[in-house]
């Protein structure tokens, strides 16, 4: 039995200069602090490129399954970002620019059902980085360079620190799995290496913490996400009660 695939360097190399040029177009935009304020130290901010109803203020990765995802007005000005995003022939769930400032740290955490085996996947395309950025995924340090494209299974514990002298900025795309992505992923790793992580790693305490962070947000989409996560929590508790009765 093969080991689970936790990350892949995908066979794409995007133009570093064009990425940097588009980034320069948005540097003066309103960067929104990441909502999970207990999950990081320092400056971690977001610009939304694809979001529910094209709302620039919506920086959340999770969206309701029936929500309409469309480009924000910011993306309409960033032609190369659009070209990069369009090169992925799969449903785009979100696309964001994430900036981790000098001296900032994203604490070790897991994300919620964001591995390929869950039917969706997260891609990182570095735009600006430095040698003192440390991205650790399940104990492995990944060195991601500008223009490269990486899949990371963020169901596993991961963290990032930036002890360098410049910001670390990534284009982060969440895509929906389809035939195109299956051909791509299974050409790089065995299909059986994409298996669901056992449910015991899906901690009710983690979901409660996410809900608490969302409750501090005034964004309308936060209420929707809170309802979805509360339902998830109810389902988990019911399943736990059933298992205890076995």
Brief account:
This protein has helices at 16-26, 73-77, 79-86, 179-188, 204-215, 220-244; strands at 7-9, 32-33, 40-41, 44-52, 69-71, 92-100, 105-109, 120-128, 133-137, 140-142, 150-152, 158-162, 168-176.
Proportion in helices: 25-40%
State the separation between the terminal residues, measured CA to CA. 29 Å
Give me the Rg, rounded. 18 Å
CATH architecture of the largest domain: Sandwich
Could you tell me the mean pLDDT? Answer: 86
* Domain module count: 2
The CATH topology name of the largest domain reads Jelly Rolls
Biggest pleated-sheet summary: 8 strands, antiparallel
Structural description of this entry:
The protein has 246 residues and is of the alpha+beta class. The chain has 2 domains: 191 residues, B-lactam Antibiotic, Isopenicillin N Synthase, Chain (Jelly Rolls); 49 residues. Helix content is 29%, strand content 27%. It has 6 helices and 13 strands. The strands form 2 sheets. Strands 1, 2, 4, 5, 6, 8, 11 and 13 form an 8-stranded antiparallel β-sheet that branches. A 5-stranded antiparallel β-sheet has the order 3-7-12-9-10, with no helix packed on it. A hairpin with a 2-residue loop joins strand 9 and strand 10. Helix 5 packs antiparallel against helix 6. The longest helix has 25 residues. The chain is globular, with a radius of gyration of 18 Å. It starts with 6 loop residues before the first strand and ends with a helix. The C terminus is likely disordered.
């Amino acid at each position: 039995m093969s080991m689970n695939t936790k990350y892949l360097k995908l066979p794409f190399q995007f133009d570093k200069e064009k990425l940097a040029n588009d980034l320069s177009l948005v540097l003066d935009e309103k960067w929104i602090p990441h909502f999970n304020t207990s999950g990081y130290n320092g400056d971690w901010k977001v610009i939304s490129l694809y979001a529910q109803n094209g709302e620039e203020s919506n920086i959340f990765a999770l969206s309701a399954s029936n929500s309409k995802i469309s480009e924000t007005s910011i993306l309409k000005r960033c032609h190369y970002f659009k070209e990069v995003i369009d090169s992925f022939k799969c449903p785009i769930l979100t696309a964001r620019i994430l900036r981790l400032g000098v001296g900032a740290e994203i604490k070790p955490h897991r994300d919620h059902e964001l591995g390929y085996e869950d039917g969706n996947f997260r891609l990182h395309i570095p735009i600006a980085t430095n040698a003192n950025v440390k991205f650790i995924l399940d104990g492995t340090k990944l060195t991601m360079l500008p223009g490269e494209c990486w899949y990371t299974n963020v169901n596993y514990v991961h963290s990032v620190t930036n002890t360098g002298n410049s910001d670390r900025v990534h284009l982060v795309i969440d895509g929906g799995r389809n035939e195109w992505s299956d051909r791509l992923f299974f050409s790089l790793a065995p299909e059986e290496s994409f298996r669901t992580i056992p449910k015991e790693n899906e901690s009710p305490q983690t979901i409660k913490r996410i809900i608490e962070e969302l409750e501090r947000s005034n964004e309308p989409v936060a209420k929707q996400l809170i309802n979805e996560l509360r339902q998830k929590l109810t389902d988990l508790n019911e399943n736990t009660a059933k298992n205890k009765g076995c």
